[in-house]
Specification:
The first copy, chain A, contains 17 helices and 15 strands. With 490 residues, chain A is α/β, with parallel strands linked by helices. The longest helix of chain A has 22 residues, at 290-311. Chain A is globular and about 80 Å long.
Chain lengths: 490, 490
């Protein structure tokens, strides 16, 4: 896979969206030149970065690249100097955006991509005053930008096709899911759908059919659960499981004509209605501040993404691909003069058990991952497993020395203590970054089991050669103190 | 918590919704009398039950109650005989429902609750022809009924308040989240919101702004991810993090007036439009059949629910409360003449690792849960932990004997091998239901650590008494063969 991660990007605007872009790029190892004029910008963006860092530490066991540098600048020229991509995220006022994008187009290098985060304005309107308008697209992200993968890409009348391709590759390189729209339309796709729900929700609160909390709860406990899995159209398709999609759509026809929605009008935001909304919204928040709500939302998004990753579904698949990219970049198994060293892993939040602890069983899981790495290093691959056999762990002796926490970076060092035709004895040491001594040690005995009989049988061919060579090498290493210990009281 | 789980319910209608109700009740230990007249009912409902059973086995580590009996009946009278609740889920035709509900009201016992699953018809219309209409409510569930927790409860003009209370308690007892609506309105709340999105989505496909797949993907990769966490109103609130909710709502005002939605009209379902929808929907499904799509959806819903449970959020909280109810019902720690026996647990799907295996580390996790149970049995509670101290595992020796799979039921038996003032040696045996020998054994050494100093120190008071008494009792049990073993090659 080609690596198109940019070295530096220029960001214009430092609100919720601009700050979110800063966090996504910086945590993916991209340098950021950020222009934000409102007071408190620096502090607010740094706080967002703290939240985003926390979310990423919980999100993935894959260690992140070294962070990019975040530089606050004072002019458009300083923001766009030497960057591959400029991302504009200033308030939704057409004149303001047109003027800024035109200014960018005069100072940026000609090959610079210029992208607007606008949530509703058409790119053809945005590019009218620009030099080289062919390099402008809309790239509309979602809050929080550092966690939600979608970015809607929309070309204007003057946009060159390669602008879309280059931008898509860059967004993909920082873990996003770019989706290219077919046509220009106000509000693009996602916001038109969101707005439709929101208007209906506002009418319900306005007419006292439901409170803010009730509307939100109805969504969260019902169809909202499905929305990350299945979009609105497939949801209806599956609800009437006719044999053909067409028949199922026909069956829904009559319901469409029912007078259920009030979407023709927008409720007037009178003082009284605003008061009602505000009061109910505050009561729903249960005294949590916006930053607290944001952290709670992020933790839940992380949990949903982790769940979807295990199922290979939607945004979970995007997460898995991003992790693979990071792994492809990082160091692989290191075999120097000492024990084998596995790539460092980060303790993710789905390793917390219900009681909020990282249990000792996760140390064993890390040993298991190290064992898998070692087996693949000596050549136990899919072909060997189905034709010859594989190793199964029959015994484990663990010493638990230090507690582990979410976000900790842990490396496993593995020594072959002994090997014969059927057995393999390993000794793992778990080192947490920054510690002097190990967090845990694990000794394991594995038995080679034949694929044909399902019983223990001799290791064969190249795997045998690689294993015995590694065992001879490791026999010269000092034997760990804890090896061969048993548990005794008194 | 009072236990209001009914013994038997009567279900009328056996489509996607009626079958889903059958699965939810049966798997929660409730007997079901099901009337469904369409051909193939029996086979279809049994297939849904198979899917639902699979989903529940993946969903929770808590063992389920013995399943209720599912009986197919041929008449309304047989369906409602002796039941506490009747749930009507026949097609959405007012006349059909009115007639059926009136018939039910003449043959059901007077105290029977009568609930309609209608997704849009007002209860006041449904109850007009009934005897004792005060016991009718709408209880509108969501597909798949056995996994999605929300049920919208709506009273009609003649409904008695206690009908709502009794029904809510019953739905809660089978793991649902009942939400009582304030007013009667066509389509209630959830479907009005869903319809709003759906109409807008249909327009986009109609106007070739996006394909079915693109509309669904935009939702799944963006705001759909948040929908289980945060409803539509709080989403907007947090997107403009003003200090007051009112100010934030005011800021959104202008966007509401933008001409983004086409919701005034419904697109005509012409032949050409239906063909387009069907073709795109089939291509989106990638040759998966509806049952395959349903299983995929269920697996993802399970993953999302498990993720939200760990965060105590929304439907995840409903899941946790349901599990607690099941645990409260089941046997607690058993201390007879043999080792301590922990309650049986089920292997849930979030114990699968990325490679689709249950790793050996989960055996250690089960040992850890058994150790926690034992500690709480001898009196190590929150007070003891903060004032005196607690036990920490320092060493573990595991023997891995059999593989475990999702849905397996496992019980842990724990023997105290020895105890002194500072140390505690345990031996766990993991038995899978139906097996002769253990799936794994685990020996553990724990050290008592003082809360004040963070160092090892003597166990005290009642905890010491309970522990030593248990140790004396267990000293008379035979010592396990594998106790005290170490790992040796040759």
């Amino acid at each position: 896979m080609s690596e198109r991660r940019p070295r530096t990007v220029g960001l214009l605007g430092a609100g919720v969206i601009g700050g979110g872009w800063a966090a996504r790029f910086v945590l993916n190892g991209v340098d950021v030149q950020l222009l934000g004029r409102s007071p408190g910008t620096t502090e607010r963006v740094r706080q967002m970065l703290v939240n985003a860092r926390r979310a990423y530490q919980r999100l993935t066991p894959v260690p992140l690249p070294a962070e990019g540098a975040l530089t606050f600048v004072d002019s458009v020229a300083d923001a766009v100097r030497g960057v591959e991509l400029v991302q504009e995220s200033v308030p939704e006022r057409l004149g303001l955006k047109q003027q800024l994008l035109a200014a960018v187009s005069r100072v940026a290098a000609p090959e610079t991509l210029i992208c607007s985060s606008t949530s509703g304005l058409r790119p053809s309107l945005l590019q009218v005053e620009m030099d080289q308008p062919e390099r402008l697209i809309v790239a509309h992200p979602f809050n929080p930008v550092y966690l939600v993968p979608l970015v809607e890409l929309c070309a204007g009348q003057s946009t060159a096709p390669e602008t879309l391709l280059r931008a898509a590759e860059i967004y993909r390189s920082v873990g996003m899911h770019p989706l290219v729209l077919r046509k220009e339309v106000d509000g693009f796709i996602a916001n038109r759908l969101q707005e439709a729900v929101w208007r209906e929700a506002l009418w319900m609160v306005h007419d006292d059919l439901a409170t803010v909390q009730e509307v939100d709860d109805v969504v969260r406990y019902s169809f909202g659960l499905r929305r990350a899995i299945m979009g609105p159209i497939q949801t209806y398709r599956i609800a009437i499981p006719e044999t053909s999609a067409r028949r199922s759509m026909e069956r829904w026809g009559p319901a469409l004509k029912l007078p259920w929605t009030k979407l023709i009008e927008v409720p007037e935001l009178t003082d009284a209605f605003l008061d009602k909304l505000a009061e109910q919204s505050d009561s729903q928040a249960e005294n949590l501040t916006i930053p607290e709500l944001e952290r709670k939302r992020d933790d839940c998004l992380v949990a949903v993404l982790q769940g979807l990753r295990a199922q290979g579904c939607g945004a979970g698949e995007t997460l898995a691909r991003w992790e693979q990219r990071l792994l492809d970049r990082g160091p692989q198994l290191i075999n120097g003069t000492g024990p084998l060293r596995m790539p460092t892993r980060q303790i993710p939040s789905d390793w917390l058990d219900g009681s909020g602890q990282i249990t000792e069983s996760r140390s064993l899981q890390l040993c298991g991952i190290a064992t898998d790495n070692l087996l693949s290093y000596i050549g136990v691959d899919g072909g060997y497993r189905s034709n010859v056999g594989s190793y199964y762990t029959v015994e484990t002796h663990l010493s638990h020395l230090r507690d582990l926490y979410v976000g900790d970076q842990v490396q496993v060092l593995t020594q072959v203590l002994g090997a014969d035709d059927r057995r393999l004895q390993l000794f793992h040491v778990l080192m947490r970054k920054g510690d002097e001594g190990p967090a845990a040690t694990g000794e394991q005995m594995l038995v080679h089991v034949e694929a044909s009989s399902g019983r223990s049988g001799p290791v064969q061919g190249k795997v045998r050669e690689h294993l015995l060579k590694l065992a001879r090498l490791h026999a010269e290493l000092p034997r760990p103190d804890r090896a061969g210990a048993s548990i005794r009281l008194g």
